[in-house]
Amino acid sequence: MGLSLQVQQVLAELEAFGRANDQREPDRARKMLNLERETAELLRAFVLSARRKRVLEIGTSNGYSAIWLASTLQSIPGSAPLLTIEKDAGKAQSARTNLQKAGLADHAVVLDGPATDLVSALPGPFDCVFFDADRISAPEQLRLLLPKLTGDALLLADNVLSHPEEIAGYLKEFDELPDFVTTTVPVGKGLHVAVRSGTAR
Ligand SMILES: C[S@@+](CC[C@H](N)C(=O)[O-])C[C@H]1O[C@@H](n2cnc3c(N)ncnc32)[C@H](O)[C@@H]1O
Questions:
Q1: Cys bridge to 108: 35, 70, 101, 153, which one at CB 3.0-4.6 A?
Q2: Per-residue pLDDT for 109 more than 50?
Q3: How many CA atoms lie within 13 A of 160 on its CB side?
């Protein structure tokens, strides 16, 4: 199923807003840093083809990738709303507004606060996690999430090619996780893909 016209319109607005905002805004914390469209399309293809039902996103910003993920989940029978985490309360509120505009308010829950604290409190299980926040705390978040992942979990992480030093710790975790098959797709800023080759649980 394609994206609804309403979703396409909101995505186009956010793309224009993000480009203009990030060009003029010198303060990195105030940039939107939205995913490239091609990366978002690939995320959608992965989630759809693997029929993911319990997806967690770490790093919401103003909700661009959350709209892609939530609208994908909407088309998968039996899926839970997307859970997405953002530490900046203002961005989290914008994400809620944008999800609402896209008609996806019932398909995503935006949690605001520091991801590591929130992740440790979430019960799971998750069959897909998308890491798109600060790369430094991603290894700890991954360790906290491991017991909450399904046997066939799909883990995605952006910025592998754009920030290789910052993401090195996250990638290193997989040295100790032989049941994950991994690769990096050179799309956008570089998307790391890890799939647990176990059975669904
Ligand atoms: C690259 S942006 C996310 C872009 C978003 N996925 C999109 O495509 O629209 C990263 C976001 O993660 C948030 N962030 C960074 N570190 C975080 C943390 N430890 N906990 C929660 N949010 C965090 C930042 O405030 C920022 O909005």
A1: 70
A2: yes
A3: 20
Instruction: Give the dihedral of Cα atoms 33, 167, 109, 80; nearest 10 deg.
Output: 130
Helix (H) or strand (E) holding 99, with range, is helix 89-101
CA–centroid distance, residue 59 to ligand 1 (Å): 3
Spell out the SS3 assignment of 45-97.
HHHHHCCCCCEEEECCCCCHHHHHHHHHHHCCCCCCCEEEEECCHHHHHHHHH
Task: Place 1 in a pLDDT band, splitting at 50, 70 and 90.
Answer: low
Which amino acid residue places its CA nearest to atom 4 of ligand 1?
A: 34
Instruction: Give 86 Cα–ligand 1 centroid separation in angstroms.
Output: 6
Give the CA distances from residue 22 to residues 19, 27, 48, in Å, rounded to whole numbers and listed in that order: 5, 9, 30
- The CATH superfamily holding the domain 5-196 is Vaccinia Virus protein VP39 (3.40.50.150)
Report the distance separating Cα 163 and Cα 189, nearest Å: 8
Per-residue pLDDT, averaged over 89-100, amounts to 98
Q: Name the closest-CA residue to atom 7, ligand 1.
A: 34
Pocket test for ligand 1, best of 15, 58, 116 (most atoms within 8 A of CB): 58
Distance 131 CA to ligand 1 centre (A): 9
User: Using one digit for the tens of pLDDT, what is the confidence trace for 124-182?
Assistant: 999 999 999 999 999 999 999 999 999 999 999 999 999 999 999 999 999 999 999 99
